[in-house]
Amino acid sequence: MIKSDRRLGQGLPWGLAVPAAAGMLFLVLPLAGLLARAPWPALPARLAEPRVLEALRLSLVTATAATALCLVLGVPLAWLLARAEFPGRGLVRALVTVPLVLPPVVGGVALLLVFGRGGLIGRWFGDVLSLPFTTAGVVVAEAFVAMPFLVISVEGTLRAADLRYEEAAATLGASRWTVFRRVTLPLVGPGIVAGAVLCWARALGEFGATITFAGNFPGTTQTMPLAVYLALETDPEAAIVLSLVLLAVCVAVLATLRDRWIKA
Amino acid sequence: MVRPRIGRRSLSAPAILVILSMLCVTGCGGGQKDDTLTVFAAASLSESFSAIGKLFEQGHPAMKIRFSFGGSATLARQIKQGAPADVFAAANMETMRQSEAPTFRIFARNRLEIAVPKGNPAHVAGVSDLARPGVKVALCAPQVPCGAAAATALAAAGVTVEPVTQEQDVKAALTKVRLGEVDAGLVYRTDVRSAGGEVEGIEFAEADKAINDYPIAVVPGTRRQVAAKEFIDIVLSDQGRRVLSDAGFTLV
Predict the structure, then answer these.
(1) Which residues cross the membrane (chain A) (predicted)?
(2) Min Cα separation B163/chain A (Å)
(3) Chain B residues touching residue A218 (CB < 8 angstroms)
(4) What are the C-alpha distances in Å from B23 to residues A6, A30, A137?
(5) Residue B136 touches chain A, beta carbons under 8 Å
(6) ipTM of this model?
(7) What number of CA atoms fall less than 13 Å from residue A115's CA on the CB side?
(8) Residue B162: closest CA among chain A residues belongs to which residue?
(9) How large is the average pLDDT for residues B141-165?
(10) Residue B158 located in a structural domain
(11) Which CATH number covers residue B244?
(12) Does A23 touch chain B (CB under 8 A)?
């Protein structure tokens, strides 16, 4: 493993190295811009502001809950797309990716048209469980936008996985459910973790669908991206601080997870 | 193992891409010509300024006009960062100050109204109903102009409103009313007009305390001073004033 890594490093053609370096710069420079403009001396005081902590807590809670929801619904969906044969599978796969191309604000309006007070579903049980303007609504909006990342990632892993293990288990008499639980899931575990991480990161940064569907109120629906957007209106310095906090937390969580799970 | 051949030929593709993208940086960006007047205007001016822009183009057949409508604070920030604007029309004085234009004219005023969904399901009759328990209200966030105006008007009325949401701009607040997700929202009179029959507007006296002045200015440093002044003249002309008045603005 190490040997092949080294060989790859030595033989890296400049035709790849130059665009790769340019690509990295392109992604990292805006971050450097944020760091350069950050009000470092005022940082500790800003970080201790209750509204910052409130928005951060809400962001972490909702992104995690949205990821959980995506796992529960998305992994079976990915399995269906990768393993089951049924007519119209191509269409279903295309539909699953719709939230990827839909502008998130439109996604938010679409969610309102379904779960809102006058919506397709919302009008029937809206009195019992109203989603708009609630923290649960934030979770729904984030899950809607983030789920395709999980589904696509898990489906890819499932397709790449060696089917013979599942076939062997089936020949030995395991039911389809047992095969899925005891063979398939452990086999594609790293893929699921990678998909979940991607999904979580997308949910954490979600703005358009959240503010459209769940609205914006400090403490209940104002997540970090919403706080950043509104701070930008009057206090760009505060917006930079909030962005840095979000970035730092995100990078810390992703780096930890990566080390623990994905290498293994 | 067969190593992929990495020869001169396979390098040319990325090289071409790099060259193309460099060309694009100089060639495709902006593309601002001298015959195009760029107007940055507050989102609430979308309908009326589009109409006034047609008037301008009729009088200046050799010129084209293009608009960038958006939140006033965002536009002011873009102008400060060097966005190629010739004229800036803001929805309040504060954002005009942020754009650092030395002189400006106030050309219209806008006042708040209570917007309710068609049929007024929560039977909102006045500003005090907004504080009634069970009435869902959308306000703008205090950071944006319509939110600041709403806070002033509500304070003047002595009413404490607990909104379900603080929207990022006035059109977002209007959308919540339009879809019937809230029982009422505080938006500008022009927004109620633009929504046609989908929302009903209720005037209230305390809106007098939170009138928004709309200033317009030539952006400092523009090369199209003359055309920019001529556009502002049309906004201030009788024709322009009629368009603004039809949209629900109060004339100055």
Answers:
(1) 12-36, 56-82, 94-115, 135-154, 183-203, 238-257
(2) 8
(3) 166
(4) 36, 22, 45
(5) yes
(6) 0.76
(7) 21
(8) A217
(9) 93
(10) yes
(11) 3.40.190.10
(12) no
